[in-house]
Amino acid sequence: MNYKQLAKHFPELATMEPAQQQALLAQAYQDAFATEHKMKNWRNNLVSAAIMLSLCFLFVLVLRPALGMSQQTSALVLMLIALPAYFFIQQRRFINQLRRSLQKLLP
Fold first, then answer.
1. What is the pLDDT of residue 7?
2. Considering only Cβ atoms within 10 Å of each terminal Cβ, which end of the chain, N or C, has fewer?
3. Do 24 and 16 meet the contact criterion of CB atoms below 8 Å apart?
4. pTM for this prediction
5. Domain locations in the chain as residue ranges
6. CA-to-CA distance for 73 and 86, rounded, in angstroms?
7. 3-class secondary structure for the chain?
């Protein structure tokens, strides 16, 4: 985990020294992704993937023919829009989970 880049997402840590930021982020990570939360994280990831898969199927089976797009164009749209959107949403969820754990640890 790159603590320097991750600390940019948490302005409440800006006043602390880097070693303290790293320690708090490591503790928050351990709290957020501990074994007792593993099933909840798996379920959330599977639900997100299922939603994304269903939206992609909807696009390919319904919207692509309705818009008269070629297969290559629809594949490009999915690769350039849907995949980065999924990664962005997953990153935001990861940061929000860390933020909740970090709020518990901060005085």
1. 85
2. C
3. yes
4. 0.81
5. 39-107
6. 19
7. CCHHHHHCCCHHHCCCCHHHHHHHHHHHHHHHCCHHHHHHHHHHHHHHHHHHHHHHHHHHHHHHHHHCCCHHHHHHHHHHHHHHHHHHHHHHHHHHHHHHHHHHHCC
